[in-house]
Write a structure and sequence with these properties.
With 302 residues, this protein is α/β, with parallel strands linked by helices. 35% of the residues lie in helices and 22% in strands. The protein starts with 6 loop residues before the first strand and ends in an 8-residue tail after the last helix.
């Protein structure tokens, strides 16, 4: 392999909440590393996915969906998303083909005016619209910003994803292989484990739960004797009523959350897992900086 010609770079995936950024990342990397939910604003930290080929290494950053913050956690998420734009080699601005151009998109395009980074427009969820509608969408966005490339895709079905990756590679600068070829994310296993548990809570609970939970991994130890990994995790909620919902009748919901999460964690770690889940109430944790820090949301890292 000619090292001089090797390309590598950082790519930010940005867009309004719920346009399919995490689904795209998981499709590209081929493993479940970003939390997926049909509820918006589920990604909080920068989740990096690493795609390595013989010619290039693309490091994808899945930012929190850009939206108007409502609390300190929201402010934090917005800062992360905005700072990312300046640090990367390429920006993928992802929009939902089913939704028209609105204030949210305008807000994001405004952020592009202050950066030199090339921007692709990625129109996702094309499997849900009639092909004729695509031309209207493309024309509407062309007027708003000089995108380097416009690529319609379906993350869910995989349509045109390879084409997008080929275009991405063209725009990457020459550079080293930052990560080993078999590494798909730079996040520690603890972080992904906590996200997998949080994802199951989101899938199995009603509307009032999502943004008021955090998952803290208290213990993650591999037993030398039988190679089983023992995971102890606490689900943090803001109100006692939420604790009741998550536990469920005679512990039934918590048991189901644990069962589903354990399967994903076993896939991630490639070994058997013993998972213990607890639920704890910490009132208004999203507005307390000390608790945000305790739960891993550290501004100084970004």
């Amino acid at each position: 392999m000619n090292n001089q010609a090797y390309k590598s770079g950082f790519i930010s995936i940005i867009g309004r909440p719920n346009v399919g950024k995490s689904t795209f990342l998981n499709r590209v990397i081929g493993q479940k590393i970003a939390i997926m939910s049909d509820k918006p604003q589920t990604t909080r930290n920068k989740v990096q996915g690493v795609l390595t080929t013989n010619e290039a290494q693309a490091i994808f950053i899945d930012t929190p969906g850009i939206h108007k913050p409502k609390h300190k956690l929201g402010d934090f998420m917005m800062k992360v998303a905005q700072n990312t734009l300046k640090e990367v080699d390429l920006i993928l601005f992802m929009v939902n083909a089913e939704e028209g151009f609105g204030k949210g998109e305008e807000f994001i395009i405004e952020k592009f005016q202050s950066v030199q980074t090339p921007v692709f427009l990625v129109i996702n969820k094309i499997d849900l619209v009639h092909p004729d509608k695509l031309f209207t969408i493309i024309d509407a966005y062309k007027e708003k910003y000089p995108f380097k490339e416009i690529v319609p895709i379906s993350s869910l079905e995989g349509n045109n994803v390879e084409t997008l990756l080929e275009q991405v590679q063209k725009y990457l600068p020459e550079g080293p292989q930052y990560y080993p070829a078999d590494q798909v994310t730079d996040h520690p296993e603890r972080f992904i484990t906590s996200e997998l548990i949080r994802e199951k809570v989101l899938h199995l609970t009603r509307e009032e739960i999502p943004h008021s939970i955090a998952v803290v991994i208290e213990k993650m130890e591999r037993s030398d004797a039988n190679d089983i990994v023992h995971v102890m995790a606490t689900i943090i909620v803001e109100r006692a009523s939420q604790k009741g919902i998550i536990i469920g009748k005679q512990g039934s919901l918590l048991k189901e959350i644990g069962k589903r999460a354990r399967l994903d964690i076993e896939n991630l770690l490639g070994t058997k897992v013993f998972l213990e889940l607890w639920v704890k109430v910490q009132k208004d944790w999203r507005n307390k900086m000390t608790q945000l820090r305790d739960f891993g949301f550290r501004e100084d890292e970004y």
